[in-house]
Amino acid sequence: MRSALILAGGRGERFWPWSRPGHPKQLLPLANGKILLSATLERLQGVVPPETTWILTGADLAPRVRALVGDKARVVEEPVGRNTAPAVGYAALLSQAAGAEDGMAVLAADHLIPDLAVFQKDLAAALALAESGDRLVTFGIPPTRPETGYGYLERGAPLGPGRAFAVAAFREKPDLATAERYVAGGNHFWNSGMFCWRPRVVLAALDRHRPALAQGVRSLAKAAKAFVAGHPAVSGDALEEIFPGLESVSIDYAVMEKATNAAMIEAAFEWDDLGSWTAWARRQARDPRGNAASGRAVTIDSDDCVVLGGGARPVVVLGGKGLIVIEHEGGTLVCPIERADEVRKAVAELEERGWLAGDEPR
Amino acid sequence: MRSALILAGGRGERFWPWSRPGHPKQLLPLANGKILLSATLERLQGVVPPETTWILTGADLAPRVRALVGDKARVVEEPVGRNTAPAVGYAALLSQAAGAEDGMAVLAADHLIPDLAVFQKDLAAALALAESGDRLVTFGIPPTRPETGYGYLERGAPLGPGRAFAVAAFREKPDLATAERYVAGGNHFWNSGMFCWRPRVVLAALDRHRPALAQGVRSLAKAAKAFVAGHPAVSGDALEEIFPGLESVSIDYAVMEKATNAAMIEAAFEWDDLGSWTAWARRQARDPRGNAASGRAVTIDSDDCVVLGGGARPVVVLGGKGLIVIEHEGGTLVCPIERADEVRKAVAELEERGWLAGDEPR
């Protein structure tokens, strides 16, 4: 049986005013109006059964996540965020406790993948690759621009037919010149942060490359069994005791970069991690003057502006050039599009002034 | 006894989103937070008694104007707007009906005059000049920039000591080169659209220069008497019958430009007709980077931006240059400051889409 982990613990401050405390990115309707987490769940439909689909999220978000996903997945509360390696380890234990020893897909809850069918084909290939050779499989996205905000995978030897390859090396976020070289060369791919592996294979890799963390994770085996058996309170107590003591480290850093059995599927699907409003704006359909207006938004004598109205109040951009304007009950952001990835500065400033709207319903 | 007319009939669409149907400029708190009409009334305190202070406004606005001014003035409803000449004529009849044959001050309800004491000194001089020689007195504002949006007064011969002069000529809104010549020459002044005269003097000028209109106006004498005697319904009926048939023309065009007894006080007070957000922005105190933020507004890494938050929702301008951002429950405007005087384009567009918020209370 297959399983899946959806990592849904992020806070996503970079989508202020949409993202605010209690309204993280994965719960926002940024996928053409669809909530990112819901779109992520759809990607597993027909591939992984709901009873072995684990959504890890913070305790504060868990009630809303549960209401959103219903019986399409099982929601697991992390008492504290400890980056991805402890989460992956615990999810592998959950899968084993449920008897799901085949491929486990690890997906981020807040990425954008417009074409579901193309993705599912690649997902099937990745799961098959993970199951056939005990490999740690990742997805390499053909780069479409010299992005310096992503890590890159260097493609190694082909692993049979199809688009399966060994990973020759993991490359940290490059400088612009290096990124340009990567894009021109054709042998480097964006590291999407999505994975497929058997539970026992990733646990073994943790044992080998991060033994102390692996030991801590494995002490959660009883908790995982209790959760699967329907005793979330028992597992919750164990998590609260043990999880905070685990090393906070990413699965990339703890395992993938050191592994000798890392493989990649060269992705056919389009992918965007939607890191900011800048990335979101890049994906909006524009009119002939380069403007995109949605909601009650109007552009007049403007060029290359993206304007998003949030409700009944109209928003007008008159004579704007290259601006993004997000109007929302949480606040209004006005900014050159290319600088919208600095919006955390705004969040910090608003927090200091006590003006950051809290947990009211959207 | 002296009297006054405050012209408060304007719609003021150029302050969207603050100005909207039912929320014209004169009722907005644009005078450092004070409502413009209230600030205008203050200018008459101690100079003109409330019982001969007439505020002319539209029937739709009259209830709110009445609530605002209380017993500080008497509110007269114009059944339709007919520009300033018919309004001035009717107000002169009201003053005569009330036995107020001394100077009548005519003020716009929506101008900004920051220094009350300096204005009142000039107002006293203008009233005295109007009363001493049966003159039509206006205020000439020393121009501080080559404004092409105003008419100009050409200063004539001095009329005794002080800053009283004849008006040599009225000059229409000039082109930029002409306006620059006016400013450099020192002999031209902005026509503020405020006046002082005796009621009988302005009525005689109407008789002479616009006899048909004067005849129509004078047929309202009975209505004026009924209003002053406390029968506004009687006067209202007469106004509704006669006013729509009067010529719609400005007092400048109908009388002032042709008069031989026009005079001016060279104003010592600062004056702005606040024609748009552009004009309003010009008056806001800026920080060292040229930004002005009021309400829940923040500028980050921005220059020369004016940001006005309208309520609980915070507004952030990040990396902006020369923008004005007005956030308000009526809508949000984002625009280069110097283009904010084109906001009527936005109002027209919103009206067409049915997105122009109406008469809800602010």
Please describe what this structure looks like.
By secondary structure, chain A is an alpha/beta fold. Chain A folds into 2 domains: 3-266, Spore Coat Polysaccharide Biosynthesis Protein SpsA, Chain A (Alpha-Beta Complex); 277-353, no CATH class. Chain A has 12 helices and 15 strands. Chain A has helices spanning 36-42, 62-69, 84-97, 116-133, 176-185, 199-209, 211-218, 221-228, 232-242, 251-256, 277-282, 343-353; strands at 3-7, 53-58, 74-78, 104-108, 136-141, 152-158, 164-171, 188-197, 262-266, 292-294, 297-300, 306-308, 315-318, 323-328, 331-336. The first copy, chain A, has a 5-stranded mixed beta barrel. The first copy, chain A, is globular, with a radius of gyration of 21 Å. The mean pLDDT of chain A is 94. At the A-B interface, β13, β14, β15 and α12 of A face β13, β14, β15 and α12 of B.
Structural class of chain A: alpha/beta
Q: What about the largest sheet of chain A?
A: 5 strands, mixed, barrel
Looking at the structure, what is the overall shape of chain A?
globular
Helix content of chain A: 25-40%
Radius of gyration of chain A: 21 Å
- Contiguous runs where pLDDT drops below 50 for at least 5 residues of chain A: none
Brief rundown of the structure:
Chain A has 362 residues and is of the alpha/beta class. Chain A contains twelve helices and 15 strands.
Which terms would index this structure?
five-stranded mixed beta barrel; 33% helix; 362 residues; 12 helices; Spore Coat Polysaccharide Biosynthesis Protein SpsA, Chain A; homodimer; alpha/beta; 2 domains; four-stranded mixed β-sheet
